[in-house]
Design a protein that fits this description.
The protein is mostly beta strands and 910 residues long. It folds into two domains: 17-100, Carboxypeptidase-like, regulatory domain (Immunoglobulin-like, Sandwich), CATH 2.60.40; 240-402 and 469-909, Maltoporin, Chain A, CATH 2.40.170.20. Helix content is 5%, strand content 51%. It has a 26-stranded antiparallel beta sheet that branches. It has a five-stranded mixed beta sheet with strand order 9-14-15-12-13. Strands 1, 2, 5 and 8 form a four-stranded mixed beta sheet that branches. The longest helix has 16 residues, at 2-17. The two termini are 40 Å apart. Belongs to the TonB-dependent receptor family. Keywords: Cell outer membrane, Membrane, Receptor, Signal, TonB box, Transmembrane, Transmembrane beta strand, Transport. It is a multi-pass membrane protein.
């Protein structure tokens, strides 16, 4: 009787706590197919589920009636009513979600991000969602996932971890903006984005949206080529998490763990992620280790206020390969007459461990706090305060042995740096391969009889070689605030402010004396004869303390600070009707630049004043939806863009550029879109003019002679014109077979000739070297393929098993020019490099385990195997780069080829 009573109580409690089951299928309106990975939550509770590969979900609900909220990154969420009782199962059928870039704001942790809306915002845009990033990236670099986007060209450069680069319509990140949750991350001195600092973005990104051209950002950012908006995961994600492990070629291993708390009854939520990546590197001598962490905490005290805190960073250390290795070296260390594409002459071994003169170590955490305030039903204020503390730099060599730098020393039989010989020579041992034996120092008394490295301060041939690091650290603070109000049901006004403060610290320090006793520093004119022995390991551990003072570190070779202040205001008026939408934007910004030179200026004269430069932009556009299938749009804009820091203070000193002027950018774009049940397409044409550029390049004159001079080449008034056509489309044959393709054709050239002026390290004109006219008119812009195309397919073989393939092709790829060419050949032509194609393959399998899911994925990248070799009399100063390593060239040789990489992963979601 007692057991029967207990059973009855259990059945009653089951009825009380589970009134029934609600099922359904979430569909993608764009492709008329299932939408896997969508979140399904019971409104007002923490009950939820995720759709399986076929878009299906099932939830045991506690209440007899309520609402389900269905959401997916990049889609407009939908709320559906349900009624269920008596333990029954109710099938809600198909629930259709529609793509909407504006829906990304549902998961972004800041309200200041500007994301384009399909068929509304009149800009050329592509959005890649988290599922595609997680599946198809494999062990490639984060920017490479964008290679199937029109006019995007992303490569790995030398092949080291995080050394990838990206261009948009031929412009690199110095002139293409990168935003994370609406926060600009381009370096405030040189405009660059170093992707090794952001290697963890692939783990935390909910979506990446690329706006080509001037874009829709209200801030006065450097979107000459375009804007990359990275939207990270949100603290408000439903409760659950995942663990994942990936392994691949060359001992690649990556592990990830993530957990989301969901939204509590008191309004708190959290999202946490930690990952580690390590491996030997595809290229020889490129070992790496990196970590990634993400902390998101949200708090919603009431319906009017919401706070979100984010902290993310990716400390890492990796060895590298340089970009200019001779073809003869690749052939010499290959097999059977074939070049060795993995060859790396920039490292050797010391006691069995890699010892490199080409590496990088860095940690750049970013913290932000966002406040969303719904002032009224028509007005809201979004404010984000953020801070970033970057610590780290690069690794290299300093000094010479018998007049030769490290790259000019005789290599070992394996083609590697003679590290053991350098240690021996530096300590006074006789090393015949390195020339005359080392003599002990005979200068100041207490250092007589020791072996002293005098670095770059003495080129007599007796100074020795040491390992050093070039530190480029910074402190960066900012606030962005945007006020939005609806003037009518179709017109919205935005106004706001953008404030930033930045200080960069630049100096060198010793890593390893490499057998020498002392390093003699003569670079500091205020203390010209210092004898140093303190070294600093370039490790991840030494970058973790981002608040550590640098005042006590012994600095060599150079030491200066760069300070930048930014004060901007912006405004936008937007009209969104049923058929017509339009916007007009304007922004003004004042940039203040200041430089502090500690070594080459006397105390009291080390700081410059603030050089304030006013800039801004105005742009607008209109979209017209002809009907449900066709739309057309156009936009136009003008930028008066402040120059980069090195164009303000030239020749690596405190000299103010006497010809300082803003860069002038003018862009225009037209587009057409087509939407249907089975096929979507976009067509764009554009023209961007970029004028009044200043460029300063390091240069060496009378190289390898006793009169060798290191200096700079300054070019003023460079103009580029970039024109092009873009076409992307995707569709489906059935729900199981989907395809996509893109084509972009560019015509990017320099316009008019410029004058190159040459200066030595002391900012004086070089005797015997006159100004030269550089014939740039009509010269092709290099370092990015001007013709790219791709085609991809995705096929579901059986339930939960998918295969996919993507082929990419690049052509019209040119070498870049160098200002020193004008000394010898004023009418030079850049070298055109061969076309190439790459094929990526993948397969996915998912296994549902109740409310959990186990997933498997395999990627094989760059399976095309093609090697091209050429000799040319043309001065080649930049070369082709592919997805595995850098295509390498020197002034007389070109090497071009591919290898294969693979990656397999297993993930468990709960």
């Amino acid at each position: 009787m007692r057991n029967l009573l207990l059973l009855a109580m259990l059945l009653a409690s089951a009825t009380i706590f589970a009134q029934g089951t609600v099922t359904g299928t979430v569909m993608d309106s764009e492709m008329d197919g299932p939408l896997p990975g969508a979140n399904v939550m019971v409104v007002g509770t923490q009950q939820g589920a995720m759709t399986d590969f076929d878009g299906n979900f099932s939830i045991d609900v506690e209440d007899s009636s309520g609402k389900l909220r269905i959401s997916f990154v990049g889609y407009s969420p939908k709320t559906v009513q349900f009624n269920v009782s008596g333990g029954q199962t109710v099938d809600l059928g198909e629930i259709v979600l529609s793509p909407d870039a504006n829906a990304l704001s549902e998961v972004v942790i800041t309200g200041v991000v500007d994301l384009a809306k399909d068929r509304q915002t009149p800009v050329a845009v592509s959005t890649i969602r988290s599922t595609e990033i997680q599946e198809k990236l494999g062990n490639q670099e984060f920017p490479e996932i964008l290679n199937t986007t029109p006019s995007i060209y992303a490569t790995k450069q030398g092949g080291g971890f995080g050394d990838s680069r990206i261009t948009i319509r031929g412009f690199d990140t110095q002139n293409s903006a990168v935003m994370i949750n609406g926060i600009p991350v381009n370096d405030m001195e040189n405009g660059q984005v170093y992707w090794s600092n952001w290697a963890g973005l692939s783990d935390v990104a909910s979506a990446v949206q690329v706006q080509r051209g001037l874009g829709s950002s209200k801030l006065a950012v450097s979107s000459v080529g375009g804007t990359i908006n990275v939207v990270t995961r949100s603290a408000q994600m439903s409760e659950g998490g995942f663990v994942k492990a990936s392994f691949g070629n060359d001992n690649y291993l990556k592990t990830i763990a993530s957990y989301n708390t969901g939204l509590s009854d008191s309004g708190w939520s959290g999202s946490f992620l930690l990952s580690r990546t390590a491996g030997d590197g595809y290229v020889n001598g490129t070992e790496f280790e990196g970590y990634n962490y993400f902390i998101g905490v949200g708090y919603q005290p009431n319906d009017d206020h919401e706070f979100n805190f984010m902290l993310t960073g990716a400390p890492q250390q990796h060895n590298q390969r340089g970009f200019f290795t001779r073809l003869s070296s690749y052939l010499a260390y290959g097999e059977n007459g074939e070049p060795n594409e993995k060859y790396n002459p920039d490292f050797g071994y010391r006691n069995g461990k890699e010892f490199t003169f080409s590496g990088n170590f860095y940690h750049k955490p970013v913290a932000s706090l966002n406040w969303e305030w719904d002032i009224t039903s028509l007005s809201k204020l979004s404010t984000t305060a953020y801070a970033s503390f970057g610590r780290g730099g690069s690794i290299g060599s300093i000094g010479r042995i018998n007049g030769r730098q490290s790259f000019a020393l005789p290599l070992t039989d394996d083609g590697l740096l003679p590290i053991d010989d350098i240690f021996a020579w530096n300590s006074g041992q006789d090393v015949p391969s390195l020339g005359d034996p080392r003599q002990p120092y005979s200068g100041e008394g207490q250092y007589q009889g020791q072996f002293v490295n005098t670095g770059n301060g003495d080129r007599s041939g007796e100074n020795g070689i040491s390992q050093r690091s070039s530190v480029n650290s910074h402190n960066w603070f900012g606030v962005i605030s945007n006020f939005e109000t609806e003037l009518t049901d179709k017109i919205t006004l935005d106004v706001g402010a953008d404030l930033r403060s930045y200080r960069g610290f630049h100096y060198r320090r010793l890593v390893d004396l490499m057998g020498a006793d002392i390093y003699r520093s003569t670079a500091d004119s205020n203390n010209p004869n210092r004898f140093l022995s303190e070294t600093y390991d370039p490790t991840i551990g030494n970058t973790l303390n981002v608040f550590k003072s640098i005042d006590d570190e012994e600095k060599i070779d150079y030491y200066n600070d760069g300070l930048v202040r930014w004060a901007g205001v912006f405004g936008q008026l937007e009209y969104a009707g049923d058929q017509v939408s339009a916007f007009v934007q304007g922004a003004l910004s004042n940039q203040g630049f200041k430089r502090i030179e500690y070594f080459n200026e006397a105390p009291g004269n080390q700081e410059t004043g603030w050089e304030n430069i006013l800039g801004g932009n105005i742009k607008g556009g209109m979209n017209y939806n002809i009907n449900d299938q066709h739309n057309v749009f156009g936009n136009i804009g003008y930028y008066s863009k402040q120059p980069l820091f090195d164009a303000v203070y030239i020749n690596f000193g405190n000299t103010l550029n006497p010809n300082l002027t803003n860069e002038q950018v003018f862009g225009i774009e037209l587009g057409y879109g087509f939407r249907s049940q089975y096929f979507n397409a976009n067509v764009n044409i554009y023209r961007t003019s970029w004028a009044d550029r200043f460029e300063s390049d390091a240069a060496t004159f009378f190289e390898d002679t006793p009169q060798e001079i290191r200096g700079t080449a300054n070019l003023l008034g460079i103009t580029q014109v970039h024109k092009g056509f873009e076409f992307d489309f995707y569709g489906r044959v059935t729900n199981k077979f989907k395809w996509n393709a893109m084509l972009s054709v560019g015509d990017w050239e320099y316009k008019d000739d410029v004058v190159a002026s040459y200066f030595d390290e002391n900012q004086n004109p070089i005797p015997g070297v006159d100004d030269a006219v550089l014939s740039l008119d009509g010269v092709k812009v290099g370092n990015a393929a001007q013709f790219t195309a791709s085609a991809g397919v995705d096929y579901q073989i059986v339930d939960n098993l998918n295969v996919d393939a993507t082929y990419r092709y690049a052509d019209n790829l040119y070498a870049d020019f160098d200002a020193t060419d004008a000394l010898n050949n004023p009418n030079f032509e850049v070298f055109e490099l061969p076309s190439y194609g790459l094929l990526d393959l993948g397969a996915s399998y998912g296994l549902d385990l109740g409310d959990n899911r186990l997933s498997f994925r395999v990627n094989v990248n760059n399976v095309t195997d093609n090697i091209y070799m050429s000799e040319s009399n043309t001065n080649i100063l930049a070369g082709p780069e592919d997805d595995t390593y850098d295509g390498v060239n020197t002034r007389n040789n070109v090497f071009f080829g591919w290898g294969r990489t693979w990656n397999a992963s297993v993930a468990f979601r709960f």
